[in-house]
Amino acid sequence: KLRTDAKVREVYKIGKTLGTGGFAVVKLATERATGGEYAVKIMSLPERGRSVGDNENSRDDIFKEIDILVGLNHPNVIYLKEYFEENNRVYLITELLTGGELLDAVLQRGSYNEADARDCFVQLLRGIEYLHANKITHRDLKLENLLLQRPANENDIPSVKVADFGLAKKMKESQMQTICGTPQYVAPEVILGTPGLIYGPAVDLWSAGVVLFILLGGYPPFYDENEPALFAQIRRGAFSFDDPVWDSVSDKGKELIRRLLEVDPKGRLTAAQALQHDWFTGGMEEDKLPDLSTTRAKLRRKESSHHFRVRAPLSPFPLSPFGSALHLEPLPSNGCHRLPHK
């Protein structure tokens, strides 16, 4: 994937700026040979051997994360086509995502029912299944990291893409120790605080369970302004379906959530097992499903009050090159392009 046979501007015409961040700029890139449009993320590289500041990444850190993305090719994972290294800069050529965040598409739909949530969630599970098959744990799955290939319309939600690989890890014997993630989505085994405790890819399925809870209920399963209290809820798996909003959600949907928000990672469903759950395989009479209007109303209230965005990630190291926020200008489609970032 590293191109050494040509300069980036020989292969691509670099166009307008789509977004900027602390250590990167994202621009439109048009392939000269085909006219195909991509995004190029341009980052400065520290000189080899130079020590970096607290908020910077070393050259090795940057290339470790690029290495995670380089071999990935799946409809539900953001695609890195190739990259160039020139004059102490790296140019990442990725697919151009114009649809914005999944949550925004759900809020903009004319109607929304359990089948719509299922169609979104199955794509997340397929992406997780693919990553885990390739020995990669994402470690920061959340609604903000689920992006759309193109803008949604009244009738469909297009391809959902897993993005933001700033905390992703290539697994060695499926064991990791670093405390990281986003508090409301982090798995209990990550925050037990036991020295030497190891965890595995099951943390991504817990986060997926949180996503599904929000998609169906409209609010997070675990929430407290006090972070220690929030973590205590998570460690206990203390959530419920007592809110009346769950009266419109099927028992199968709620049962899948329970199987994903299982405190013991050994009892938690894998992505492959979740895809075989009755919620997906049992069929739904879509014309008889109630509209989840209360769910969407709750989503709007929580979004406007920042319940989904209130807390900074538990980053174990300085912001990664895919981790610093990008402030993006809207594309003509009224969507936005997002690259892997935190």
UniProtKB/TrEMBL annotation:
InterPro entries: Kinase-like_dom_sf, Prot_kinase_dom, Protein_kinase_ATP_BS, Ser/Thr_kinase_AS. Keywords: ATP-binding, Kinase, Nucleotide-binding, Serine/threonine-protein kinase, Transferase. Gene3D superfamilies: Transferase(Phosphotransferase) domain 1. Residues 12-280 form the Protein kinase domain. GO terms for molecular function: ATP binding; protein serine/threonine kinase activity. The keyword Metal-binding does not apply. ATP binds at residue 41. Pfam families: Pkinase (PF00069). This is Pkinase-domain-containing protein. It comes from Coccomyxa subellipsoidea (strain C-169) (Green microalga).
